[in-house]
Amino acid sequence: MTALNFTHDPVRRSWIESANLPDADFPIQNLPFGAFERNGEARTGVAIGEHVVDLRALRDSGLVEAGSDAALACEAASGATLNRLMAMGPRYSGALRAALSELLKSDAPQRANVQRQAEALLPRIDEIALRLPCEVGDYSDFLTSLHHTERHGRYKGLADPLPPAFKSLPIAYHGRASSLRASGGEVRRPHGQYRDASGQIVFGPAPALDFELELAAWIGHGNAFTQPIPIDAAHEHIFGYSLLNDWSAKSIQWFEQVLGPFLGKSFHSSVSPWIVTAEALAPFRKAPVPRAQDDPPLMPHLRGAFDQQQGGLHLALYADLSTSRLRDAGAGPVRITRTHLDNLYWTFAQMVAHHTSNGCDLRTGDLLGSGTISGADDAARACITELTNAGKDPLRLPNGETRTALEDGDEIVLSARATKSGAVSIGFGECRGRIAPALAVAGRREEIAA
Amino acid sequence: MTALNFTHDPVRRSWIESANLPDADFPIQNLPFGAFERNGEARTGVAIGEHVVDLRALRDSGLVEAGSDAALACEAASGATLNRLMAMGPRYSGALRAALSELLKSDAPQRANVQRQAEALLPRIDEIALRLPCEVGDYSDFLTSLHHTERHGRYKGLADPLPPAFKSLPIAYHGRASSLRASGGEVRRPHGQYRDASGQIVFGPAPALDFELELAAWIGHGNAFTQPIPIDAAHEHIFGYSLLNDWSAKSIQWFEQVLGPFLGKSFHSSVSPWIVTAEALAPFRKAPVPRAQDDPPLMPHLRGAFDQQQGGLHLALYADLSTSRLRDAGAGPVRITRTHLDNLYWTFAQMVAHHTSNGCDLRTGDLLGSGTISGADDAARACITELTNAGKDPLRLPNGETRTALEDGDEIVLSARATKSGAVSIGFGECRGRIAPALAVAGRREEIAA
């Protein structure tokens, strides 16, 4: 496993000027993969500044050396999704990123040739409709922030707010793959059963909507059924990462939850559409925060030398909230969460090793969410439930509005930034969603005896 | 919605004699759909007696009227899975079953023509390798037997063994789609973390393996994202049913479970490979068991006239256990569970309506498990945990062996039979799996402080 990605030359610049802005999410050192619709066709691409390289157009351009690993990668990515490319492992996507870096760098010999084909090759991101980057077979969501878990345990009044298994294994549940959607657009408030303030069980538009700021790993090549992935190989199975907003209807969740979250989560989960590759993030690797002295020792199948040294990331993550009133007044969003990946107790490699330790097969395109990345600091609380101490201390916005949950019209934008001295900082793009009012269907609020 | 399927003529017989045996699972009145491998090719088919009609061969045979609904269905089913056919709704699969019934009936005018092509058209089931009938997007598993739920609540020592939500909504969790497998072959004992008898947390081959006897519904055409399926339309979205064995490693489950079952279930779930269509089961419809007088009234979105009258099935279900010692002695399996679909508190239509009530989209090929179908009677306990009163009363086999959990070499076969006077009884085929010893990988049993 290479610790530093050869395409990360911090001096390199692109002749696409928007990639060179200091706050650009997609400088030439990033080159994340995504899928989109263009002229009614589903395609895949690589982001550079405010543009995207259309990979089918690139395949047909003659710009990539025939028969090379990059050309094979380009061919695999010329369908509607990235699954085929992701399944090939990092060698091919890495070769394609390296070839693109050569074509897009300031002093690229091919620059004029690329520019001649720019209309086909390089649409602007704001002219395409981004889609989920791949077909997701299964989506699993973990619970790996100790702070998030402890706070929720305290809200429930538990004597020991941390579940006994928390420090022995990364707790998780199976999520719903069908309702994953790419960033953007409306998040429809769901109907559901819940207890109202009087304790009555009712069915209607669900109150207590919340966001959850997460990072999620995309599986590249998977494992054979019954064959666990050893911790030392786990990083190689992760193609890359996106932001995940695991929207939650807490009212539904509190009432329904016996075997874990179900309808309280499955109405919508938003994913940032660009997969920032594990390769692009390699320069930002760091050791995970060490376990406390009195924590139980790591079991062998969760303990890997590379993972212990480089299983974390220098990655800051943010959540911004805007409301209808703020937007109507022309005011920008309010930053409500500033957190860091260091707030995870478990690494993604540990999640992969644990997930497959029983022989469960991960498949290309599977998504593994980190769980809400809350930290110990008040500013690092990564959902409204925590930001308001379970509703006791409403969130106060600059315009006087208060929130204990998301209201219709509220919009959450997640973002993240990998930063390390000596490296060019890279971002993830945004994970955006705005709460839309519940549909009128099946919406009668009908009371039954509790 | 037609209450009785026009292809169910109880007098009709097939010229394929194995379909006419009194205990045949697949008489001409059944005609279930499945997928299989034949000469290295993935195909789909329809079972009749001990044979299967190869649907790609049927398409190419000239036996189905060109342009008819049956021909369109046949074309849709000529790929590797049934997804395309299932998505078309019951009209097309129904037309194909009707056309097959005409070709296979004793006095079929085309009989000689079919028989001439029998080698291509009608392989024996024991000469093909059955596969999962379709690609499964998401698999959800419910908890709808009151008896199963209450017993487990009592084992845990709960004051109120039934969760508060149980009678308000069908409780469920998201399952793992990747580890679903067609009936047959080995079920590898998983590794996992669990507490041993001394309370130590250990990692190793998981003890306390159990089976769970379930029925599962396959979704035909799905619903649009954010658009719930009304209870009155729910039955039309169910293409058919299979048996499901939700193998469980209770030792893993008890320790890991915070957000529901995860690795304790995701190592393997077995499905009987034939989809018995909702249409074939129509003659066996019955009213579900009425709710008790003092149960909370059904909410409107879970209350449908058709469902209240015909949402149940005259369906008996069985589990048989054999062990290595029994087989070595030439003894047959022991029937350990005799239960009935009446033991479900919720209907499948209610599961569909509930699942989509928050706007979650069900997709063609999604699988909805009923949960363990245990009844009040001791004989109707549908997992070993219940059969042994959580290990207190070991299961005693005729040869003197005892069980409190499944041991390596133990084999479970699930079966079911729909029966009603005036109708020809139909079955599901078997859902079989045999426990294989844990792999040696990652198998060190390593103790850490509890």
TrEMBL record, chains A, B:
Pathway this chain belongs to: Amino-acid degradation; L-phenylalanine degradation; acetoacetate and fumarate from L-phenylalanine: step 6/6
Active site: 148
EC number: 3.7.1.2
Annotated keywords: Calcium, Hydrolase, Magnesium, Metal-binding, Phenylalanine catabolism, Tyrosine catabolism
Pfam families attached to this UniProt entry: FAA_hydrolase, FAA_hydrolase_N
Cofactor(s) listed: Ca(2+); Mg(2+)
Stretches assigned to the Fumarylacetoacetase-like C-terminal domain: 159-435
A GO molecular-function descriptor: fumarylacetoacetase activity
Binding site for Ca(2+): 141, 212, 214, 246
Protein residues bound to substrate: 253, 372
Ligand binding (Mg(2+)): 246, 265, 269
GO biological process assignments: homogentisate catabolic process; L-phenylalanine catabolic process; L-tyrosine catabolic process
InterPro entries: Fumarylacetoacetase (IPR005959), Fumarylacetoacetase-like_C (IPR011234), Fumarylacetoacetase_C_sf (IPR036663), Fumarylacetoacetase_N (IPR015377), Fumarylacetoacetase_N_sf (IPR036462)
Domain Fumarylacetoacetase N-terminal: from-to ranges: 29-133
Protein name (record): fumarylacetoacetase
